[in-house]
Amino acid sequence: MKNIVLTISVLLLAVSMFAQPAKKPTIMVVPSDQYCISRDYKQEFNNQGETKVLPDYKKALQNDSDLRLVISKMSGIMADRGFPLKDLEQELKKLENERAQKDMTISSSTGMGLAESPIDALLRTAKADIIMDLSFEIKRRGPQQYITYILNGYDAYTSKNIASSSGAGEPSSAATPDVLLEEAVLAHMDEFNDRLMNYFTDMFEKGREVTIQVLVNDAAMDNLESEYTWKGKTGELSQLINAWFIMNTVEKRFSRATSTANLLIMDQVRMPMFTEDPWTGEKVGQDTQDFAYKLRDWLEDEIGLADPIKIAPKGLGEVWLIIGGK
Predict the structure, then answer these.
(1) Best CA proximity match to 55, nearest among 86, 27, 34
(2) Could you give the angle at which helices 88-102 and 118-126 cross, rounded to 10 degrees?
(3) Which CATH class is domain 27-204?
(4) How many CB atoms sit inside 10 A of residue 306's CB?
(5) Mean pLDDT, to the nearest integer, of 62-79?
(6) Which one-letter DSSP state was computed for residue 250?
(7) What is the DSSP string of 28-73?
(8) 173 phi/psi in degrees, rounded to 5
(9) What angle do CA 268, 324, 221 make, to 5 degrees?
(10) Rounded CA gap, 40 and 60, in Å?
(11) Which N-terminal stretch is annotated as signal sequence (predicted)?
(12) What is this structure's pTM?
């Protein structure tokens, strides 16, 4: 009996020592494209010859006091539920500080841009897990006003919609827009947050979904059909890269979408959420760029690839490795 009691005590002690509260996703609240563009808060962006119209968050925040109130209130609602937040306005300021170095960066030897839109750059800088895309409209009914809203939660890495909510609040003759929003969304927030957490928990178990593209520059000495030997076996470079993904993805989850002599696209890649920092040995969060650096180092150190490899981030959830690109 004493042994049983001792065993139970040890188990309870172990649980209390190692149990950790569930990590919650980092969230950033942004106005929807529809909200911004319909109110002329927009900018035009040239993406490799194609003109795209994108929301201008800075213009929206500077000119729309209702929007600032509503975003602040939504951020407060999420903070009350323990979700870490990224502030859109502060992230825009951070992006401006690095834009001179990273916007439209051109490789001196290849002339290839990073093909990164302003929105991609914002998401990469903020590194939020979930984007809460919010649109709303204040309507009037006689002397009273009420708010209608649409809220979508997106995976910042894949742009997949993982939770949605919409509704309308009760009319009021005195309430401000932020109070109207709070009254409208509170009834739906628990279900919305549960969906966010379920998705985030799935990422911890099955890895974060990202895309890695391997491109070959015209100046490169080899291409993806060139043969290399690793651990006594010889195969094409694309085959060896495929083997690396087998070894480094969660449950070997990835898909080879395109494979040619000069282009290899790996999508639906389930990258581990955490990695060991090579300098300190500490367990740290891993992003797509960290993951791509591991592949680059393996190609240079293990495979002996002679061509230099350029790492080019394209937003938060995609990275290009350009062989011969430096």
Answers:
(1) 34
(2) 110
(3) alpha beta
(4) 11
(5) 93
(6) G
(7) EEEE-HHHHHHTT-EEEEEETTEEEEEE-HHHHHHH-HHHHHHHHH
(8) -100, -5
(9) 115
(10) 9
(11) 1-21
(12) 0.79
